[in-house]
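We include this case.
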Amino acid sequence: MDDGVAALRSEFQRVNQAAEKAGRSSNRIRVVAVSKTKPVSLIRQVYDAGHRSFGENYVQEIIEKAPQLPEDIEWHFIGNLQSNKV
């Protein structure tokens, strides 16, 4: 199993445990995989494992990566958006 998929599965286990502890349903929690600085090949592996929500903090990275990946990815901005990057 590749490292990205293993890390994703580990995080989902943590989310499920936390949800159970809090008395919440884990299917109501959205996990956004932070893909900033990660290569398209790793994002594709996580996508192929079934994940669809990814987070970037630079517009330039989304512009570069999005055309190389499937259109059904949900992109999210994470962190602070810098005014000089808008």
Summary: The chain has a mean pLDDT of 89. The longest strand covers residues 53-56.
